[in-house]
Amino acid sequence: MKYAIFSSAIAIFATLATALPTAENLAPRDHVKEVINSNLVVNINEDAPETPLGVSDKGIVSRANGKHNSQALVKFDFRESLSGYKCRLAFGYPAQFSGTGEIQVYTIGDINIASSTFNHRPFRDQFKGTFRVTGWAEAEVVDGSGLTFDCPTQGAKAYEVVSVGDNNEVVWNAAWGGLRIDAF
């Protein structure tokens, strides 16, 4: 009886071991050296176009009924030690979302965003990518054509996050979620 149980256990473990991937089968992965969270988030709102809403601890991106746009300006600081690495924009861990859950990210023409308003803000420069928030974890990359770039030697970069589609909202806590940069 003991021999039968022992033999069965060995057979089960052998079957499981053969199902494990070998080193050759593993897909190469980027190993993240550092995660850079935003150090400044400023929300701007179409319904208060001249009002600076100031620095916030959360980003809010929304659009309702073809208007009422809320967008977020997000700034990141880069340390000198990232020189020579690649950086990639990523989005994850929203506080809430509804509608399409899609957002687009653009570079903007200035890093001085603290007093920005909907009507007075840095110009939108280059499209970087589109994300779709579908749950409480990492967002799906819909268009990643500009998400990866050479990490700057040091300094700052700022981005604008906007809603895609109508009746859409994505909100994140800037301390632990939302737009971030992975250095690898």
UniProtKB/TrEMBL annotation:
Residues 39-167 form the Ubiquitin 3 binding protein But2 C-terminal domain. It comes from the Eukaryota. Keywords: Signal. InterPro entries: Ubiquitin3-bd_protein_But2_C. Residues 1-19 form the signal peptide. The keyword Signal applies. The keyword Signal applies. It holds the Pfam family But2. This is Ubiquitin 3 binding protein But2 C-terminal domain-containing protein. It comes from Tuber aestivum (summer truffle). The lineage of its organism: Eukaryota, Fungi, Dikarya, Ascomycota, Pezizomycotina.
